[in-house]
């Protein structure tokens, strides 16, 4: 029996994750590819509480709250996760979308993601002051990395196309929304 879409039940993921028609936890998310003027991207490294030895890099972002637009969510996540206060006009895009499937907190989840770009001067020092208790449990660090550094470091990178996207966007966005389709991260 497949649960009804939107049905909620107890989960460690949080109340914004609902069961979809496929039986997987699902939510919509806004993510931001933050680039500095040196062409580096701000990424967060985290791990799964159930798999602490597995670690990966990903962009700033998270779930879109009820009644919140994609842009509002992206700006809120920038403020909460990296200490960046930006305005809607500071975002480009959406530049990319994907449906990410991943294993987290002992559940397989689907997150439909929309990505924006924000450009900031080199030298911004991100802060974790806005991290939630759950984020503090599973997020390890934030760092500015170039596309080459993303490719050469030992951890997984999500979305997997991020190094190529960073290189393309460093020279400016051409207005094309890149659709990555489904990407299985586990």
UniProtKB/TrEMBL annotation:
Residues 25-168 form the Nudix hydrolase domain. It comes from the Bacteria. CDD domains: NUDIX_Hydrolase (cd04685). Pfam families: NUDIX. InterPro entries: NUDIX_hydrolase-like_dom_sf (IPR015797), NUDIX_hydrolase_CS (IPR020084), NUDIX_hydrolase_dom (IPR000086). GO terms for molecular function: hydrolase activity. Its cofactor is Mg(2+). The keyword Hydrolase applies. The keyword Manganese does not apply. Keywords: Hydrolase, Magnesium. This is NUDIX hydrolase. It comes from Xylanimonas oleitrophica.
């Amino acid at each position: 029996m497949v649960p009804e879409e939107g049905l909620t039940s107890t989960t460690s993921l949080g109340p914004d994750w609902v069961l979809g028609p496929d039986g997987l936890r699902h939510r919509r998310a806004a993510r931001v590819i933050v680039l500095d003027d040196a062409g580096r991207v701000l990424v967060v490294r985290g791990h799964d509480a159930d798999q602490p030895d597995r670690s990966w890099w990903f962009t700033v972002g998270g779930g879109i709250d009820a009644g919140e637009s994609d842009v509002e969510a992206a700006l809120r996540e920038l403020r909460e996760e990296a200490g960046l206060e930006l305005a809607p006009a500071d975002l480009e895009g959406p530049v990319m979308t994907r449906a990410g499937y991943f294993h987290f907190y002992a559940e397989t989840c689907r997150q439909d993601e929309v990505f924006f770009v924000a450009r900031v001067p080199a030298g911004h020092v991100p802060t974790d002051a806005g991290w939630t208790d759950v984020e503090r449990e599973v997020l390890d660090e934030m760092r500015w990395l170039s596309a080459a550094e993303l490719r050469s470091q030992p951890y997984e990178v999500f979305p997997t196309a991020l190094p190529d996207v960073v290189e393309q966007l460093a020279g400016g966005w051409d207005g094309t929304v890149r659709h990555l389709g489904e990407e299985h991260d586990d």
